[in-house]
Amino acid sequence: MKKLINTPESVLSDALAGIAAMHPELRVDAANKTIVRADAPRPGKTALVSGGGSGHEPLHGGFVGPGMLDAACPGEIFTSPVPDQILAAARAVDSGNGVLFVVKNYTGDVMNFQLAADIATDEGIGVRTVLVNDDVAVRDSTWTAGRRGTGATVFVEKIAGALAERGADLDKVAELAERVNAASRSFAIALTACTTPAAGRPGFELPGDEIEIGVGIHGEPGRSREKLRSARELAEIALGAILADRSPEPGEQAIVLVNGLGGTPLIELYIMAAEVAAILSRHEVPIAANLVGNYVTSLDMAGVSISLCHADTEMLDLWAAPVATPALRWGC
Amino acid sequence: MKKLINTPESVLSDALAGIAAMHPELRVDAANKTIVRADAPRPGKTALVSGGGSGHEPLHGGFVGPGMLDAACPGEIFTSPVPDQILAAARAVDSGNGVLFVVKNYTGDVMNFQLAADIATDEGIGVRTVLVNDDVAVRDSTWTAGRRGTGATVFVEKIAGALAERGADLDKVAELAERVNAASRSFAIALTACTTPAAGRPGFELPGDEIEIGVGIHGEPGRSREKLRSARELAEIALGAILADRSPEPGEQAIVLVNGLGGTPLIELYIMAAEVAAILSRHEVPIAANLVGNYVTSLDMAGVSISLCHADTEMLDLWAAPVATPALRWGC
């Protein structure tokens, strides 16, 4: 294993030190392992908190800032944050207007966020939770009951975050977050496995000419293992699964995320983006907005995920609203 | 070789199709292989054109837009753009106020940009060229006479681009670009080799526990091949070389780029960033601004480069000025 680390045990705390050093607009709590907007809690604002295992950067710490999350609580690599940590994040950002937990649907995350929500509620913090479960590849997996949460997390955090920034109350923000999740679908393809620092070797074996179709963001198995194909064929497989699961309704336009899993060069993501655009054009699905790059990664895994949000006009307006985070920044 | 491509021959044109589809604010000329600001030529504005081999994305196409480049001309993978292509970019953006060529110091690039400059001059286009040569690792290499151009390209394009956006003339923009380059230093470390689509296998062999200290962005050899070390030790090596070559002068502050070479997870880059910040603090070098992420890559190479610009107040002001490109965006 070759990684730019000090020790496998200190990966998260060392990375948090880097975020603290390079982002003075964020406040890193090294003891609780939280990343918080420096100006939190914001009076009158519904707060958004997300978290999950580390190894998916920039998710979630890279999405903390005006117009998106108020705090992130990263767990150890591929490990849910603990309830105390989630609770610390909620306490740090609640202004009395309540907190929305954005939780990717993995068993450990769901359980720990639920425990934290129960305690926070007992303390008088209003909490609502939205589960993100956009991955159409498989139902139930080694990590999940139901669908896994992946790229749509970016859509949910950006769009609901913008509504919260405009002053909407917790129920309205939660309701919109659920609508965004319901309108979003994802599908991923891995070319290589990823290596966690603790394990020191790839999480699964993938022969030199094979790929995993429908892989999860921790390397969970997908639908099938197949021979490598062209970018065009892979885009057809991914978008075929996505559009078969939910086709656009009248008035909707697509927000598209062509997401690298961590080890894939940007030039390959743009090749995939060209194929995605061609397929959507053929299906007469207009692309209103898009992101191409590494947003929800799986350490050093080579591969791509495609996410699509069938956005209505409110979602499109909120997507375009100002955001200022380490990983997403426009309009301010 | 496992890559998200259609054919090795069509990598650049397929990726350009993706940029065209996803960035309507840019104009892609598929025949000439140029990426141009959609609003170019801008009346009264000094234009900036850069280019070089592909495989370093987001450099340079990802830096086209208000506040940075007017056009980019990407060559084939690790291959200089041809003179006609550079000339097409210059013609597309010149408003009569002249064009600054930002050229990384590689033999092929220098020659082809010079040929293009000669023809452009004959056509009445004012051209000045700034050579970027910031890599302190080696003098002369398999690709270069003198120092290689790497991460400082981002500093030069951003800072000179901001001055051009404010209406400065060609000589002033060129003079500043030269000052930024002179104030910048870089050093890179590779953990793995990269694989070009045409070759289909890694460009060099690196045993499982060895790294290349001072590597170039095409995998050119560096200073030495050594056993893997901790992030802390690697940061010491890189910054030691950088600061030994040029220490800060009174009134200067650092702009720091902790740059992934394409295959390294962001969490590792933040670990390196923490070490870089600690070392600079010990040397009493204040960090005024920073970037952490993949900006000047080498396809799928795992590794990191550190770049440092000893910036004066004018450079810092221009660094902070609004920019709106696919890869750098703030303030607008």
Q: Could you please say which CATH topology of the largest domain in chain A applies here?
A: Rossmann fold
Strand proportion of chain A, as a percent range, falls in: 15-25%
Instruction: Quote the average pLDDT of chain A.
Output: 97
Report how far apart the termini of chain A are: 40 Å
CATH architecture label of the largest domain in chain A: 3-Layer(aba) Sandwich
Q: Specify the number of helices of chain A.
A: 8
Q: Output the helix-strand order of chain A.
A: HEEEEHEHEHHEEEHEHEEHEE
Q: Structural class, judged by helices and strands of chain A?
A: alpha/beta
Give a description of the structure.
The structure is a homodimer. Chain A has about 325 residues and is an alpha/beta fold. Chain A has 2 domains: about 10-185, Rossmann fold (3-Layer(aba) Sandwich), CATH 3.40.50.10440; about 185-325, Hypothetical Protein Tm841, Chain: A,domain 3. Chain A has helices spanning about 10-20, 85-95, 105-120, 150-165, 170-180, 230-245, 265-280, 315-320; strands at about 25-30, 35, 45-55, 70-75, 100-105, 125-130, 185-190, 210-215, 225, 255-260, 285-295, 305-310, 325, 330. In chain A, the strands form 3 sheets. In chain A, strands 1-2-4-3-5-6 form a 6-stranded mixed beta sheet, with helices on both faces. In chain A, helix 7 links the parallel strand 10 (about 255-260) and strand 11 (about 285-295). In chain A, helix 4 (about 150-165) runs antiparallel to helix 5 and helix 4 packs across helix 8. The longest helix of chain A has 17 residues, at about 265-280. The relative contact order of chain A is 0.15. Chains A and B meet through helix 1, helix 6, helix 7, strand 11 and strand 14 of A and helix 1, helix 6, helix 7, strand 11 and strand 14 of B.
